[in-house]
Design brief:
The structure is a homotrimer of 307-residue chains. Chain A is 28% helix and 29% strand. Chain A is of the alpha+beta class. Chain A folds into two domains: 236 residues, Zn peptidases (Aminopeptidase, 3-Layer(aba) Sandwich); 60 residues, Beta Barrel (Elongation Factor Tu (Ef-tu), domain 3), CATH 2.40.30.40. The interface between A and B is medium-sized, with 25 and 32 residues.
Chain lengths: 307, 307, 307
């Protein structure tokens, strides 16, 4: 069983990349791939630039399946005075630490929640429009990792681990997932028109619920607020079963992922959400079981070889 | 006046095809068309396969207008324990009968609604992720048909009846309409890029309201939650007037159809909803007047010839 | 400082063009451009017709940036009896005057709001499906203009003023913005596929809030319910700063524009909202400061030259 690269996961969780403002993470990944790819089984083609906004694609061999991992995180934008407006859907508790940067320098402040209205508490005013994110406090116990932004830096981590041995496939790092989407549609267009790729896996994080628990394996989702095509999902489940990797079935009414945008794209692309579950979603204390991370990476490797 | 093919309508209402899981109905229609087309005025080209997911297209002659009829129905997915989550927007009453199938065999169970939380009542557990639909109890009186899934098997029926004499046009059977859509966008892409078809009719079912009543004819909708382009709708109404077929005008604030997805597609395609009205929408007891069915089929034939 | 063409703005505010029913304004603009373009620095190519529904595009030189100005306004559709349903989100006060036209002739009636249910008060019944809009009462004081439909006839006005000296760029008049959109997606497709235009400015009207006030300049929005890409918005702000034109920064949680639809299109097109602020939004009394109009036109000219 493959060890978890704690340093990589920890670094990813600490990079500033709220929705719409992901470029620091894009640059980190380009550098990471450029320095690591010599150790990989197959060297990917790196595809990025202004035609892809802040997205990044790794192309391995002859792709028939794409892994989507969103780069962006939830966060906050400074409004006027000391007001904050959310980016995506943060679950705020007064006292949570936020960090960022404006023309006057670095920022580390506390958040206050007064009846759902959000404010920052800082020694000076912060420029309107400044983005803030949770301060990263990465914690490890014997069985768990805990940090802000496990969602979705773990999805990104998973994709990078799969990359090490991947021979054929696309790894697509998307943006804006936490706040309305907007890149998956052109990424679908690109991958379908260029390579006729019709199969997608969503490398993202889901929730602990009454049917999904810590340490029971990676989650294969049959539905959330969107319903993927049954024929494709059944194929994934049959492969998960054959793989021997621990997995759990999810059936939810709410929640969403890049899968939703894939479904609404103008291409007949099937998608299925496959990812580890976490607790304390969208707080600075997202909690994930190590065994579920290992299962996630292992199942993705199997799926990318057999789908 | 053309007789109603009760057997066909009844069969259609009983086929299992909740959103995302429509393939049984697709297969039924392919077989139906293949056995019936020799009796039709024009033999259509059948277009389907993995580039169309579970959709089916019939192409007649040189098309300039497309009929959209969605295949899917509302229903339920089994969550954990005995919980159910809705597919689309069913109007549930405790005691309604549901049917489906899992690895352990066929299922027929009752639904329980406890303060909006849905449960099944069955002698054994049902596998998580299993889709269930209303059990079909097709009823006929002198003036009415009553069944689950009049919405939208009557829209499908209408398209099949129009097919019998159609010389030029597209009939497009779409999926997922009841639950977020997802196929109309690639169907629009296909039909516009391949045939420059810019006119669509939505063959679907609408509601009895204080302005739309049973037996007064097929409904032409001026708007629901979406507003179609006035110039096109005015053309349809002028043709409806000229046709002599009984029709009613609908103006609503809410509700939606495949028209919404056509409007948001990346193609300048006009759409108009034209369909019979029903009562007891999204229950097992959807009620439609026979005269409105006849008016629907007759007006569609006229429109497809004159639009 | 350039004078404001009051007559043009007044005329624009009085033209009937609710969402889905914009063709009168499209025709007005085509005629306006055809008669005015000889006085313009560059003669644009006029692009319109059935492939563009009721939209109109002016193409100047070699475009790299597009101005989007939506033509449509909020309004009302007559339902059954004396009921009205809204087009977009009007802020109604009983007694507001509405105008329109049906087969029986011209209409001028009063609106009644009874607990959020809307009715008209008129001497005769009005045909179901008839669209009504606010009656235009254009008012001028030393510092302000006040009228219905400043939103978005001022955005249209701005585009026409920029057109006078524009050498390279697209001016795109879109439809349906107030009610779900539906044209921006095909307009994006056209402009990206034909000219690789990846930069957009949204010429529209925003709100007076606790951070945006009358007379303080044109508003550059960092976000509303959608978040544009930070890198692009930062570029706009740097140019606004360099231009010397008075401008204000906006940061909101709600609200939206054609920018939302651009972001969700299948093309990597950046967008930024730049427009004057108004008070009494979506009423017959929208109020805008003259200095903010001048700032808007001046900044657009600068941006179109320097972006």
């Amino acid at each position: 069983m493959e060890p978890i690269d704690i340093e990589l996961l920890k670094q990813l969780c600490g990079i500033f990349a709220p929705s719409g403002n992901e470029s620091a993470l894009t640059k980190y990944l380009i550098e990471y791939v450029e320095t690591q790819q010599d150790n990989w089984k197959t060297k990917p083609e790196l595809i990025y630039g202004e035609e892809f906004q802040d997205c990044l694609i790794l192309k391995f061999g002859e792709p028939t399946t794409a892994i989507f991992a969103h780069l962006d995180s939830i966060g906050f934008t400074v409004r006027y005075e000391n007001q904050l407006v959310p980016i995506g859907g943060p679950e705020v508790e007064s006292g949570d630490l936020l960090v960022g940067h404006d023309a006057m320098g670095p920022i580390e402040c506390k958040i206050k929640d007064e009846d759902g209205h959000l404010f920052y508490d800082f020694g000076r005013g912060i420029e309107s429009g400044t983005d803030l994110v949770y301060k990263c406090d990465f914690r490890e116990t014997e069985e768990y990792f805990q940090s802000c932004y496990i969602d979705n830096r773990l999805g990104v981590y998973n994709a990078l681990k799969v990359a090490e041995t991947l021979e054929n496939g696309l790894i697509i790092f998307s943006c804006w997932e936490e706040h309305g989407g907007g890149t998956v549609s052109f990424l679908c267009k690109w991958m379908y028109e260029k390579y006729k790729v019709k199969q997608a896996l969503i490398s993202d994080i889901t929730w602990i619920t009454d049917g999904v628990t810590h340490g029971q394996g990676v989650v294969v989702s049959l539905r959330d607020s969107s319903i993927p095509r049954r024929e494709y999902v059944d194929k994934i489940i049959a492969l998960a079963e054959a793989s021997g990797v621990p997995y759990q079935i999810e059936v939810e009414r709410s929640g969403g992922s890049d899968g939703r945008e894939i479904q609404q794209s103008q291409y007949p692309i099937d998608w299925c959400f496959v990812g580890a579950p976490e607790d304390y979603v969208h707080t600075p204390n997202e909690l994930v079981h190590k065994a579920d991370i290992t299962a996630m990476v292992t199942l993705y490797k199997y799926l990318m070889n057999n789908l």
